[in-house]
What does this fold into?
Amino acid sequence: MYTIGQVAELFHLPVSTLRYYDKQGLFPGMARTSGIRRFGEGELEALRVIECLKKSGLEIRDIRQFMDWCTEGAATYPQRLELFQRQRANVEEELVRLNKVLDMLKFKCWYYEQAMADGGEERVKSMIPHQLPEEIQASYQNAHGE
Amino acid sequence: MYTIGQVAELFHLPVSTLRYYDKQGLFPGMARTSGIRRFGEGELEALRVIECLKKSGLEIRDIRQFMDWCTEGAATYPQRLELFQRQRANVEEELVRLNKVLDMLKFKCWYYEQAMADGGEERVKSMIPHQLPEEIQASYQNAHGE
DNA sequence: CCTTGACCTGAACTCAGGTTTAGGTGTTAT
DNA sequence: ATAACACCTAAACCTGAGTTCAGGTCAAGG
It folds into this structure.
């Protein structure tokens, strides 16, 4: 069992955030001894799931919903599965989008390297969109077109 | 040249957001005819870069900084390159994190599929962390340990 | 003419996700 | 025993990124 301060350190989170999560109902049924929160294995796994669901784009209120489902038992397996499937699809789409962003950034890095070497953007600008080096062109097209 | 409404449609953004971006200085030197904003190719490319930099984790004020560098000419190539390199590193890290999130979600999907098939979590819980099917174990470990 | 629709502005409002503050409790080192 | 810590609460505050509102301009169509 851990205190809030230990968990804060373990997860590199401010204590205030953990208290905020608790107040939002993200640790239903967490143990306390004379008012002091006691984080067990269940709460640590909850916290891992919270971070996961947050990064997958879920809001706090929907994470609470999930935690409530967990306390309701086996009857809510379908909802929980559906939630994870939805978030999984979300994240897969997000990965595609982020890869486009990365390609744009790669292109811009290349662009400014050229511009710096040339002392101006004229030459590199004139290469867009069809005289680019092969790899850069691939990035450019992934970032721009559909 | 496009009106704000046309650009809103092209980029699937509310008109109010475009005006907000403009007010934040994200389109320095945008043309106007009798008060009405005229978006040209420059502004469209700016908008693409804005979306890219936003998704890479940059705040509006730092995007404005970049736009200002662009109007300052060749002297700011180094800053602009450095910005894109930093954001690129950011996004690469973010992709790693998001892939961990995805692995957690995959694991949880599998977990609840098993739980639903079994009518309970006992069996599947008992398999954690070393009796999991190979692929699931890989996801589990990527999502959990370092 | 006069109404409709697309544009304009500045200022106030919203919302999520925390963070900070003020005031208090309880246990442990000096 | 008293100071220093780590913990507690409720409530106010903050920030970024927009959105909404109130009031106004202007061009085109019936």
Summary: The interface with chain B takes residues 48-49, 52, 55-56, 74, 77-78, 80-81, 84-85, 87-88, 91-92, 94-95, 97-99, 101-102, 104-106, 108-109, 112-113, 115-116, 119-121, 143-144 of chain A (CB under 8 Å). Strands of chain A lie at 31-33, 36-38.
